[in-house]
């Protein structure tokens, strides 16, 4: 654990159909961030591919990889070369038929294969129109974790986890002082005009609240750009059928017709332990978002807003219930 | 449980030294709100007195009252007359030497004494410079509660509770669809210029996040005005010694000298189940803040943002720990 300021870099990027192109882009951006002094870098959720969960297709399990595997090998080389911690979100093949949405923390100080200091398997799995994640990802079975890295005590959570105060609290109680949320969230084009602003605002608000409730830094990194979910597999383009909505029997918010895709809203940000925005990315550009985090601010904030002191742990037994009828 | 829209009224008020004056003011404002069509009204925290917790003085236990008692009697008469639910925050005398910060829900449909449909005893008790609540209030022992009233399924929480996602979640899991937070929070005058905006923003942000996380309406009602904590007891003015900070041995943020008091920041608000602000009060005026809440919006929002569906109740066992070392 370090007490010197940490320079975080979040790689807000767009994703191409070819996974190799995305890995090369991510690697190049990590190098760029390291040259700019970053001590810890976080990539967006599942950056190796366009967001394929827009449909359910068994062929897409070809995107999975082992951990350690080719992505951790490529990124660990950069982590070692620049002495920087890298957090990568990968589609993990754990066993035949068992796949996870996994965040891997690579730390040059770790002697494990590919410098893997820790992994976290996404606990909360969404399932909504065009976000069919329950088809692909087995819910995590490692629980919530914190990790002492060369760049501070961190916790990794993934996307849908960000809507759960329980996830942030569990991770903070394990000692994490900075929470990272690799993310892939965007607007349904048909909804954006009416609901887009409120959706982004809710997304940022609840994560700022995790910072406030726990006195921790929060770093959310999202992809950007409009995607139809095109993925190159063995030289073949796999894409959503043009009448996907019709095929999938979707009704209500969505009209049958050409696949509208998703407009990923970027808007990556870094919040301090009182929820103040330290750095804010755009909604429509690739960028590397950086901020210097002073770990002393965690303790100072918690002394002035001593929420951890006053938790009524005797009164929270209902939290492990689905509902209290 | 009703399915018709609920009209909430929040009584943002200032408090005088004389408790009887405050009770009369509160009663008059409740009547005014009822005439304007309110079906449920919430008063600010401990509205019967100026915020006396600015010092520790045994004489101030004279402010306590039983429940049922004089305040519930006065307010229940109004509740019955106008067929309206009233939520009142009182300094409860439960037994000699045992006092609570208690929210009482008065519902004309209840046949209990003073139409008391339910009480909630503040679970999280703060203790900070000028907020010496641990001296006065025994932490609640009733846990978190929801209540089916004539004006919908509600949960009452109190002030410091608002910083705890656990409290909101527990209350929502018990069926509350609207959370009420009677509050007394303000700025230390010496801090306001530097931190005031961030403090109010954090306070509102974390409560909007409770709305989002749980798909519930959130109604926060605060007092307004600068107070030295003057309280009239048996015709005698009880006030903070002019050099209170010195007497209390306070250092750091506070300079010894005349008691600076607290500037209560008002800013009461009503948020919908996606955290959008439906009504927003000023920082410096008394006002009655109203909004019409459609209970159908709770279910619609939860269908579109199905956070309750995906909670990992098997993974939250750490939440009942103080810290996970």
Sequence-ordered SSE layout with sheet pairings:
The structure is a homodimer.
Chain A: E1 6-12, H1 19-35, E2 40-42, H2 70-82, E3 85-95, E4 98-106, E5 116-121, H3 133-136, E6 147-149, E7 152-156, H4 165-173, E8 178-183, E9 186-187, H5 189-214, E10 217-222, E11 224-227, E12 231-233, E13 236-238, H6 244-247, E14 262-265, E15 269-271, E16 277-280, E17 287-293, H7 296-304
Parallel strand pairs in A: 1-2, 2-3, 7-8, 8-10
Antiparallel strand pairs in A: 1-17, 3-4, 4-5, 6-7, 9-14, 10-15, 11-14, 12-13, 15-16
Provide a short characterization of the protein structure.
The structure is a homodimer of 325-residue chains. Chain A is of the alpha+beta class and 325 residues long.
Report on this structure.
Two copies of one chain form a homodimer. Chain A has helices spanning 19-35, 70-82, 133-136, 165-173, 189-214, 244-247, 296-304, and strands at residues 6-12, 40-42, 85-95, 98-106, 116-121, 147-149, 152-156, 178-183, 186-187, 217-222, 224-227, 231-233, 236-238, 262-265, 269-271, 277-280, 287-293. The first copy, chain A, has 325 residues and is an alpha+beta fold. In chain A, the strands form four sheets. A six-stranded mixed sheet of chain A has the order 5-4-3-2-1-17. Chain A has a six-stranded mixed sheet with strand order 6-7-8-10-15-16, covered by helices on one side. In chain A, strands 9-14-11 form a three-stranded antiparallel sheet. In chain A, a hairpin with a 2-residue loop joins strand 3 (85-95) and strand 4 (98-106). In chain A, helix 1 (19-35) packs parallel to helix 2 and helix 4 packs parallel to helix 5 (189-214). The first copy, chain A, starts with 5 loop residues before the first strand and ends in a 21-residue tail after the last helix.
């Amino acid at each position: 654990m370090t007490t010197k300021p940490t320079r975080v870099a979040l790689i807000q990027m767009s994703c191409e159909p070819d996974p190799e192109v995305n890995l090369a882009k991510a690697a190049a951006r990590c190098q760029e961030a390291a040259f700019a002094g970053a001590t810890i870098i976080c990539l967006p959720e599942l950056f190796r591919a366009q967001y394929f969960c827009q449909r359910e297709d068994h062929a897409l399990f070809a995107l999975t990889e082992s951990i350690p595997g080719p992505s951790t090998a490529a990124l660990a080389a950069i982590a070692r070369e620049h002495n920087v911690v890298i957090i990568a979100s990968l589609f993990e093949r754990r066993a035949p038929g068992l796949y996870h949405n996994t965040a891997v923390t690579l730390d040059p100080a770790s002697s494990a294969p590919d410098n893997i200091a820790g992994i976290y398997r996404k606990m909360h799995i969404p399932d909504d129109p065009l976000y069919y994640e329950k088809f692909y990802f087995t819910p995590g079975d490692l629980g919530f974790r914190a990790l002492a890295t060369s760049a501070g005590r961190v916790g990794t959570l993934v996307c849908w986890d960000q809507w759960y105060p329980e996830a942030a609290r569990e991770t903070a109680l394990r000692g994490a002082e900075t929470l990272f949320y690799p993310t892939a969230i965007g607007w349904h084009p048909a909804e954006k005009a009416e609901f887009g602003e409120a959706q982004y605002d809710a997304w940022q608000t609840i994560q700022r609240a995790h910072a406030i409730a726990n006195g921790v830094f929060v770093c959310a990194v999202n992809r950007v750009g409009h995607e139809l979910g095109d993925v190159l597999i063995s030289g073949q383009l796999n894409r959503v059928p043009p009448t996907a909505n019709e095929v999938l029997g979707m009704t209500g918010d969505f009209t049958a017709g050409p696949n509208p895709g998703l407009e990923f809203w970027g808007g990556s940000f870094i919040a301090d332990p009182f929820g103040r925005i330290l750095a804010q990315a755009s909604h429509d550009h690739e960028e590397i978002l950086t901020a210097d985090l002073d770990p002393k601010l965690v303790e100072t904030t918690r002394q002035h807003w001593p929420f951890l002191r006053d938790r009524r742990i005797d009164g929270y037994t209902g939290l492990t219930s689905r509902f209290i009828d």
